[in-house]
Design a protein that fits this description.
The protein is about 60% helix and about 0% strand. It is mainly α and about 160 residues long.
Length: about 160
């Protein structure tokens, strides 16, 4: 059944506004996405790739390579899955592993922070005088260097 957004074949009509005034592709409403999944899966996949690439391109330069790599991993998980549910579970597991790694890193950072704070609170031996730039004051007798001319002449 055709609607304002779809023709008789279930494909999205050209009058459906997918681009914003800035020329960026917009995420359609849920009903449009649902119809696309049933009637135009290739169009939905193209939309997904376009939106993902738009996010990557809009990210800071230093993050773009990492985001592209992550997108590659996600695409690989999707292609290896036998169905969409398995793909979703696999990607969810990947996100959970990443979250667990970040939590462990935060825990390690907190441990290091508390160790540093404990060390900074312990009393240290007397601090060096600021005028000596950290050097300890010591005295030494300077012995003049004399040249032994006899040893040089025997060579």
């Amino acid at each position: 059944m055709p609607s304002d957004n779809f023709n008789e074949q279930g494909q999205i009509n050209n009058k459906t506004p997918l681009k914003s005034m800035e020329g960026k592709v917009q995420l359609p409403d849920f009903d449009t996405l649902r119809r696309m999944s049933k009637h135009d899966p290739a169009g939905l996949e193209h939309l997904r790739q376009t939106l993902c690439q738009q996010v990557i391109d809009g990210a800071p330069q230093r993050a773009q390579r990492r985001l592209s790599g992550l997108m590659f991993q996600i695409d690989a998980k999707r292609s290896l899955a036998k169905d969409n549910l398995q793909a979703c579970e696999s990607i969810s597991h990947m996100m959970n592993e990443s979250l667990t790694r970040m939590q462990l890193l935060l825990k390690d950072l907190r441990t290091m922070q508390s160790t540093c704070m404990a060390l900074s609170e312990t009393s240290l031996p007397s601090t060096p005088d600021a005028t000596t730039c950290g050097a300890h004051k010591t005295s030494a007798k300077i012995i003049p260097f004399t040249r032994n001319t006899e040893a040089l002449s025997q060579r």
